Amino acid sequence: MTMQAASTFVVTTPALQEPYDRHSVLERLTTALGTMQFNPTVQYQVLQATRALCRALDCCTGGTLQNRWDDFERHIWPAWCAGRNRPPGHWWTGGVRVIVTGRFVRPSWDFLCTTKTATWVARLPTDHPLAHEAARLNQTLAAFSWLRPAMRGAALNAGLRLLLAHGYDSLDQIHEHDLVMIPAAAE
Predict the structure, then answer these.
(1) SS3 at position 130
(2) By residue range, what is the domain housing residue 149?
(3) Using one digit for the tens of pLDDT, what is the confidence trace for 102-128?
(4) Cα 147 to Cα 159: distance, rounded to the nearest angstrom
(5) Tally of structural domains, the chain
(6) What confidence score (pLDDT) does residue 147 get?
(7) How confident is the model at residue 146 (pLDDT cuts 50, 70, 90)?
(8) Is 122 in the same domain as 179?
(9) 92-106, 110-124, 146-160: which range is least confident on average?
(10) 35 CB contacts (<8 Å, ≥6 apart)?
(11) Residues 135, 58 share a domain
(12) β partners of residue 19
């Protein structure tokens, strides 16, 4: 199955508190997936993982997508990370990648610390707001010649995680308080 990528990213995500409707969510996730930078084979595998995510969300409690996501984070995601009942194949995180980077849900900091956030964002179209902020942060970090590559990567992940966890659209929205509140184990 091949999906056409949109030439311009358009945010079509529902409000976080709209009633959960699996068919609407799957349709919106499929549209968002079509804008991401995957070859057709991988895109098909990510689509399968997206369908598996929707089946998992159907089993979660809550009346809204965000409520079900919160339940997914608490109960299903840890099992998937441990290799239990998760979608098959290398791209098992694909649906989760789409729902998080597409800003359909607001993930928790703890959840984000289990992900390769910058790697996920790298597959977004270049005109996606998160991709733009990632490029901006990368450019800023490159100016610090004394930073080791691992530290640059950690800083990039932290910045992107702050955007996602707080629902920010721009790095300019991050305040000192946000940085102070990063758990010590995540630094």
Answers:
(1) helix
(2) 107-187
(3) 999 999 999 999 999 999 999 999 999
(4) 15
(5) 2
(6) 82
(7) confident
(8) yes
(9) 146-160
(10) 5, 6, 9, 124, 125, 128
(11) no
(12) 64
